[in-house]
Design a protein that fits this description.
Blueprint (H helix, E strand, L loop, with lengths): L3 H45 L3 H28 L7 E4 H11 L1 H6 L2 E4 L15 E4 L1 H18 L5 E9 L3 E8 L6 H5 L6 E3 L4 E4 L1 H11 L3 E5 L6 E8 L3
Parallel strand pairs: 2-4
Antiparallel strand pairs: 1-3, 4-5, 5-9, 6-7, 8-9
Helix pairs in contact: 1-2, 3-5, 5-7
């Protein structure tokens, strides 16, 4: 699904992500300390203030401080995510479960997912591919890739295709959309924290970055093949349960 050049790019991206994670962890810690003081003081002043206009201003300060705190939480989750709790996971069954859980959101975005029919229980044994994964973290990766594809198809919506295959060591699955593609610059920086691809119709933020970190923690790799105008193929290689 993805060329050798795409996987070579992932090796460079993984090194850059590790360096960014170390920076993010340190920066997040340093920002959190003064932020906690700001939140505490804003809450105290809000409790003591009786003037409605001043209370409104203090409430805005507190709300924005909480917003920063939540953003720092995302940074720390990217920088130091929980260690995965590995177990054998059915690739087709888990992908189907994520698609079903996102069904309402995808329908609201006028998107339809094409996926090999039937759950893992209905597939021949050779097709029930087992991967070694933390089920919750695997679901986060699949959810982020589907949401990213849905964003690219806005405002008209469209079809998202999910394909999968396997070799002896790795399962490989891809999310494919025919929405607005990535420029070369956007593709190179798609896994960077807070990089925004909104010009390509993709509000990337932390979604792909978080997915890439989880894939890396599982010993896998992720690559993007795209051009302006699409299609875009995001392919994940994930270690199999042998």
């Amino acid at each position: 699904m993805t060329s050798p050049e795409g996987w070579q790019q992932w090796a460079c991206d993984a090194d850059r992500l590790a360096a960014l994670a170390e920076f993010a962890a340190g920066a997040g810690h340093e920002i959190n300390n003064p932020l906690a003081t700001i939140i505490g003081r804003a809450q105290q002043l809000l409790r003591e203030e009786s003037d409605p206009r001043r209370r409104q201003s203090l409430a805005i300060i507190a709300a924005q401080a909480y917003r920063i705190r939540d953003m720092i939480g995302d940074v720390m989750l990217f920088a130091r995510p929980p260690q995965p709790e590995m177990r054998p996971v059915s690739l087709p069954q888990t992908l189907r479960g994520v698609i079903d859980r996102l069904a309402a959101d995808l329908a609201a975005a006028r998107c339809r997912v094409e996926f090999p029919p039937g759950d893992a229980a209905d597939l021949p044994p050779r097709e029930d591919i087992l991967v070694l994964a933390d089920p919750a973290q695997f679901a986060v990766v699949a959810s982020e890739l589907l949401r990213n594809a849905a964003q690219a198809l806005q405002p008209a919506g469209g079809v998202i295709r999910v394909d999968f295959s396997a070799d002896e060591r790795f399962a490989q699955w891809a999310v494919i959309d025919h929405g607005k593609g990535f420029t070369d610059h956007e593709r190179r920086h798609a896994f960077d924290p807070f990089f925004s691809g909104r010009q390509a119709g993709r509000g990337l933020g932390f979604g792909l970055c978080k997915a890439a970190r989880i894939v890396d923690l599982h010993g896998g790799s992720i690559a993007i093949e795209s051009a302006e105008g699409g299609p875009t193929v995001v392919t994940v290689r994930w270690p199999r349960q042998l």
